Amino acid sequence: MLLDAEADICAYVARDTIKARRLLSEALHDFRSGSDMARSHRLRVFWIPEDFDADDESQRDLVADLLTEQVSRDILMNVVFGNLTADDVRFFVRTSGLAGLHLSLLFVISTAAEEFSRIRDLAELLGVSQGAVRERLIRLLGCGFLRQFGGGATLAGATLKGRVFLDFCGVLRREIGGGDMSAELLHVMRLLDMRYAPSALGHAKESLHLAGPLLTEVPEMVTGRLLSTIEVAEERWGIDLHEIPHVIHEDNRNWGAVGDDYIRRLREESRHFSP
After folding, report:
1. How far apart are CA 187 and CA 64, in angstroms?
2. How far is CA 245 from CA 50, 124, 149, 176, in A?
3. pLDDT tens, 14-44?
4. pTM
5. Contact, 239 vs 166, CB < 8 A?
6. Sign of dihedral through CA atoms 263, 265, 268, 270?
7. Which residues contact 198 (CB under 8 A, 6 or more apart)?
8. pLDDT tens profile 141-186
9. How far, in Å, CA of 205 to CA of 120, rounded?
10. Could you count the other beta carbons within 10 Å of the beta carbon of residue 178?
């Protein structure tokens, strides 16, 4: 399966046993140690109960439902949504201090015609201090919503996960504001361990400058805090999440001939220490 270069995704279903997991681990190790470095991340493994009886119709139905849930979750969250997780959302809403700045910063970076290379430019655009921008950049990088290259500049661009998160915020804002939450939104919220409770909104907005377990771990408070963050960002910085004009920048990193040769030598050297 892994040597099938034409397959975009290799799906493998196996009984969840120690033997099966050991065989899979050994196969992946041998594959990665070989000369053919095809993309092993294409492999998607879906585990079913060890004692599954394929002759039992009720068990077949149960396993079919289980596989449907696993496959749909994998496609939606890991492929379409760029690996967006509940932990990413919680890490984002855990930000205290100047409310709404991190969301506005992500929006500005994702919709900019060119990637920003200086923190000062972002600070002047949003009318805040460079220190405040620097702190939020670190938070957004930690969420995986931005990619950043070092050196003399702080070159920041939105990742697929960051763009998806902004789109999710837009849908969340529109549907809850309109009083009609779709089944699709409720399903995504469930996968992100979020729940909506109107009474949480007031408390969330009053405490956006704070952070704590009650404010950032309770599913209803996570939703309330994210909605309050969106509202503040709209009011203070005028961001519009209705239709987000994302600008996708190509990765044009050019290492040069010397750099490319050095990277190849590093790869050859590291193979001697790779498990």
Report:
1. 19
2. 48, 21, 23, 22
3. 899 999 888 888 877 776 665 444 455 567 7
4. 0.70
5. no
6. negative
7. none
8. 988 999 875 544 456 788 888 999 999 999 999 999 888 899 888 9
9. 29
10. 8
Closest C-alpha among 237, 213, 236 to residue 225: 213
- Stretch (H or E) spanning 14: strand 10-15
Structural tokens at position 173: 């804002």
Q: How many CB atoms neighbour CB 142 within 10 A?
A: 14
The CB-based long-range contact list for 14-23 (8 Å cut-off, 24+ gap) reads 14/45, 14/46, 14/47, 14/48, 15/47, 15/48, 15/49, 15/50, 15/52, 16/47, 16/48, 16/49, 16/50, 17/50
Q: How far apart, in whole angstroms, are the C-alpha atoms of residue 93 and residue 227?
A: 10
**The two three-digit tokens of residue 243, written as one number:** 């239709």
Per this entry, what is the length of the chain? 275
H or E stretch including 220?
A: helix 219-237
Q: Which residues, in sequence order, are bridge partners of residue 46?
A: 13
